[in-house]
Write a structure and sequence with these properties.
This protein has 266 residues and is α+β, with helices and mostly antiparallel strands. It is built from 7 helices and 10 strands. Strands 1-2-3-5-4 form a 5-stranded antiparallel beta sheet, sandwiched between helices. The chain has a 3-stranded antiparallel beta sheet with strand order 6-8-9, covered by helices on one side. This is Protein kinase.
Length: 266
C-alpha cells in the first residue's frame, strides 16, 4: 500500500512479516512512535508501532519494549515480530480487544487496575533489566537512594495504557521498563487517581490494595511525592501549552501537601 508514512521503506521493512499490506487503520499516536496502527496483511493482522531508525531515546525505547515483552506476558500483549531496515524499526503485536480504563471515583474498573499492578508485581526481574535502573526522578530529589530496588517497574501507568477486555486486562506500552523500588508503580497510580478526581487520601487507600505499596517506607513515598511535584512543575513550565503536564503537576502538589511533604528539602 502507499498509505504508509514517508518513503516506501516501512512497507519494505514489514513485508517479510506481513506480506502485502491490505489495510491500515491508524490509532491515536503515542508520544514515542511515528506510527501506531492496526494493519492487515496477507499473513494476518497486528497492532504495529514504528519509528524512524535514528539513534536516540525513541529507538532505544522501542527496542527495549521488544526485549522486555517475553518477560511480561500475559500482562502485556505478545510481540509477534520485530522488523528493521535502514529507515524504520517496528514491532508487530498480537491484537487484543479492550477499552481504556476509567480511573474516576466510583469506577468499576479500579479493582481491575489494582489487579493488573499486582500481576506485574509478581513478575520476576529478568536479567536484561538489571542494567536498567530507575533514575528519572534522581535530579528532583536529594535522596535518590530511596527509589532504588530490584523490582521490575512498569512506569507508564495511565488510563489509556490499561486495556480492559471481557475476561482479562492488559498493561500496554512497555516502552521504558526499569528496575527500582516496587512501590513506585502504585505511587504512580496514586498520582493518576488524584488527577482523575480522587482525593489524595482516597487514592492512597486504593493503592493499599497493591501488594507492592504495603512495604513502602513513608519517608521514601514523601520524597517521591516531592520529586514528582518538582518534575511535573519543571516540565509544565517548559511546555505551557501541554495541559496534561499542568494537570499532573497539580495532582502531585495536592498529594505532597496531603503527606505534609510539600516544600521539604528532598
Amino acid at each position: 500500500m502507499s498509505d504508509l508514512p514517508g518513503p516506501d521503506g516501512l512497507a519494505t521493512a514489514l513485508h517479510p512479516y506481513t506480506g502485502e499490506i491490505v489495510s491500515i487503520t491508524p490509532t491515536e499516536r503515542g508520544f514515542s512512535s511515528d506510527l501506531t496502527a492496526i494493519m492487515t496483511g496477507e499473513r494476518g493482522e497486528w497492532f504495529v508501532k514504528a519509528i524512524r531508525n535514528r539513534p536516540g531515546g525513541r529507538r532505544a525505547s522501542l527496542v527495549r519494549e521488544g526485549r522486555i515483552n517475553p518477560h511480561v506476558r500475559p500482562v502485556s500483549p505478545p510481540v509477534r515480530w520485530h522488523a528493521e531496515n535502514d529507515d524504520w524499526v517496528a514491532l508487530g503485536f498480537e491484537i487484543v480487544y479492550g477499552r481504556h480504563a476509567d480511573l474516576a471515583p466510583g469506577s468499576a474498573d479500579l479493582p481491575v487496575v489494582i489487579d493488573v499492578l499486582n500481576r506485574i508485581a509478581e513478575l520476576p526481574l529478568p536479567t536484561l533489566a538489571a542494567d536498567w535502573p530507575e533514575t528519572r526522578w534522581d535530579r528532583f530529589t536529594d535522596r535518590p537512594q530511596l527509589l532504588r530496588g530490584n523490582a521490575l517497574l512498569y512506569t507508564d501507568i495511565h488510563p489509556s495504557n490499561v486495556l480492559i477486555g471481557e475476561r482479562t486486562a492488559w498493561a500496554v506500552d512497555w516502552s521504558w521498563p526499569t528496575r527500582g523500588a516496587a512501590w513506585i508503580a502504585p505511587a504512580l497510580l496514586v498520582l493518576q487517581l488524584v488527577a482523575a478526581g480522587h482525593t489524595s487520601a482516597e487514592a492512597e487507600i486504593l493503592a493499599s490494595g497493591c501488594t507492592a505499596w504495603r512495604d513502602a517506607a513513608p519517608d521514601a513515598v514523601d520524597a517521591f511525592a516531592v520529586a514528582s511535584t518538582r518534575m511535573y512543575e519543571t516540565f509544565a513550565e517548559r511546555n505551557p501549552d501541554v495541559s496534561w503536564l499542568e494537570a499532573m503537576a497539580t495532582a502531585a502538589r495536592a498529594w505532597a501537601e496531603h503527606r505534609g511533604a510539600d516544600g521539604r528539602a528532598m
